[in-house]
Amino acid sequence: MSAEVEKKKVVLAYSGGLDTSCILVWLLENGYDVVTFLADVGQSEDFEAARAKAAILGASKMVIQDVKTEFVEEFIWPSIRANGLYEDRYPMGTALARPCIARAMIKVAKEEGAKYVAHGATGKGNDQIRFELSAYALHSTIEVISPWRLPEFYTRFKGRNDLFEYAKEKGIPLPVTQKDPWSIDANLMHISYESGILEDPQTHAPKKLYVMTTHPEDAPDVPTVLEIEFQKGLPVKVVNKDDGTTKTKALDLFIYCNEIGGKHGVGRIDIVENRFIGMKSRGIYETPGGTILLSAHMDLEVFTLDRELRKIKRKLDAEFAEQVYRGFWFSPEAEYTRRCIALSQDHVDGTVTVKVYKGGVYILGRASPHSLYNAELVSMNVQGDYEPTDAGGFIKINALRIREYQRLRASETSGK
Ligand code: ARG
């Protein structure tokens, strides 16, 4: 290629779907040498079909990487420790996967000597932010191409019909199945459903939407009892108390919790959330295994952590959730938060027994070598190392402030 100018190389986050296929061809048309990248984060996907499609469309190379284990160990696990819930409800399946995917993709960009990375996220969502913040953090000179934010792209492709027309014209294979009337993001931790008919927050999700979980009302009448063991706040073992199935490897353990949670219809939520960019959006998520593990971890924390330590830790949990949701995984504040949270987990060891049944996770009991629970101290039947008369003074001193407050309020109103 002596006479030719060397082409600009871009690594494109490619799914094999219509959008990213059109973006791939559009990049080629604009003179790029395109390497496609597809991360296996546990979505059910025909990876080889995607590889073949990328080759047909003209990608110079397709890189498919299995990042499932690192997704669990380095992203989902810290979130279990942090009781990771955005706005108190969303377990952040998508938000946790993005930095994992971006990190793998940036590695490929470096290996390939690519100056650009591209993605198919829309200009309205959180994913563009998560993807790009991670990319810039890990590769200081990388340039990002985000077609859905480029006027020459979004004025040309105003909707799905334009993409279809373009695909037909360029010989891009059209999707064989009818697209669901909502947008899906799937990985090992969750599946999310947004937009389309779900944009009206009043519209109920149709029954056929859910993929990972059984409808709670159709779930088995017999519960499954699991014993979940934690070390330093991380799940290390799950035992099915009914049939003895035991899982200890992080990925296997997580997949097994998904299986049990899915079977019993656990972890569905339908919420309106606040996107970082400033708008509210409606989402439906199913996070079966994550929901089981979060419930068990929260229980063990109360059992093993000092009350005041836990209070501070809960604030860090909220910070963690916001940092993850907003895409700041690789920021100094997020590193600091994760390290502090890890430190709080030194004694979060033990087992929690849960019953998984018809969409619910019911705690049956817990045990820990480091519990701060003192059965004798709390017992109604024994005195223990406790002087009941002390409580009277404790209550009176605590009452001092509120007694004064109410006395003054009363005198103010009676004076009117
Ligand atoms: N609203 C959720 C989040 O921001 C889910 C996003 C799903 N992403 C998608 N590309 N469909 O984490």
From TrEMBL:
Residues 182-405 form the Arginosuccinate synthase C-terminal domain. PROSITE patterns: ARGININOSUCCIN_SYN_1 (PS00564), ARGININOSUCCIN_SYN_2 (PS00565). Pathway: Amino-acid biosynthesis; L-arginine biosynthesis; L-arginine from L-ornithine and carbamoyl phosphate: step 2/3; Nitrogen metabolism; urea cycle; (N(omega)-L-arginino)succinate from L-aspartate and L-citrulline: step 1/1. Keywords: Amino-acid biosynthesis, Arginine biosynthesis, ATP-binding, Ligase, Nucleotide-binding, Urea cycle. It catalyses: L-citrulline + L-aspartate + ATP = 2-(N(omega)-L-arginino)succinate + AMP + diphosphate + H(+). Homotetramer. InterPro entries: Arginosuc_syn_C (IPR048268), Arginosuc_syn_N (IPR048267), Arginosuc_synth (IPR001518), Arginosuc_synth_CS (IPR018223), Arginosuc_synth_type_1_subfam (IPR023434), AS_cat/multimer_dom_body (IPR024074), Rossmann-like_a/b/a_fold (IPR014729). This is Argininosuccinate synthase. Residues 9-173 form the Arginosuccinate synthase-like N-terminal domain. GO terms for molecular function: argininosuccinate synthase activity; ATP binding. It comes from the Eukaryota. One of its GO terms (biological process) is urea cycle. Its EC number is 6.3.4.5. Pfam families: Arginosuc_syn_C, Arginosuc_synth.
